């Protein structure tokens, strides 16, 4: 499988693991020096990412990837997330790879749908 297809699958696996509450799978996908940024978080480290960004209880019913593109070491993804309470929102994310693992994620919040 070429790098583009491998990285596309890694991105899909990341969102599936989030939906299934599989921190163990995600931990294996991230570099040790992974950083996460969003309008609420500025380059937080891996440990803080798991503390802040992983809900204690299931939160989502579905996460549907609407757009996914990979160019070299970067991927862009647009998705729609549906919460268990029936609300939903769309976000864009930029992911940076180092080798076969994700080194950074930057989230751009979208609107509620």
Give the biggest sheet.
6 strands, mixed
Number of domains: 1
Number of helices: 3
Strand content: over 45%
Specify the CATH architecture. Roll
Estimated radius of gyration: 13 Å
Average pLDDT, to the nearest integer? 93
The helix fraction, in percent, is 25-40%
Which structural class should the secondary elements be placed in?
A: alpha+beta
State the separation between the terminal residues, measured CA to CA.
35 Å
What is the CATH fold-level name? Nuclear Transport Factor 2, Chain: A
The CATH class is identified as Alpha Beta
Please name the defining characteristics of this protein:
single chain; 113 residues; alpha+beta; Nuclear Transport Factor 2, Chain: A; 6 strands; NTF2-like_dom_sf; NTF2 domain-containing protein; SnoaL-like
Describe the protein's architecture and organization.
The protein is of the alpha+beta class and 113 residues long. It has a single domain, classed as Nuclear Transport Factor 2, Chain: A, CATH 3.10.450.50. The protein is built from 3 helices and 6 strands; from the N terminus they run ααββαββββ. It has helices at 3-19, 23-29, 46-53, and strands at residues 30-38, 41-45, 60-71, 74-83, 88-98, 101-112. The protein has a 6-stranded mixed β-sheet. The longest helix has 17 residues, at 3-19. The protein is globular.
């Amino acid at each position: 499988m070429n790098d583009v297809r491998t990285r596309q699958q890694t991105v899909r696996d990341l969102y599936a693991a989030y939906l299934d509450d599989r921190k163990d799978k995600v931990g294996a996908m991230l570099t040790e020096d992974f950083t996460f940024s969003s309008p609420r978080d500025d380059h937080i480290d891996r440990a803080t990412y798991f503390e802040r960004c992983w809900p204690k209880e299931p939160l989502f019913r579905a996460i549907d990837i609407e757009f996914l593109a990979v160019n070299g070491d970067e991927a862009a993804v647009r998705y729609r997330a549906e919460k268990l309470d029936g609300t939903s929102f769309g976000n864009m994310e930029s992911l940076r790879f180092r080798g076969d693992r994700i080194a950074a994620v930057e989230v751009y919040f979208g609107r509620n749908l």
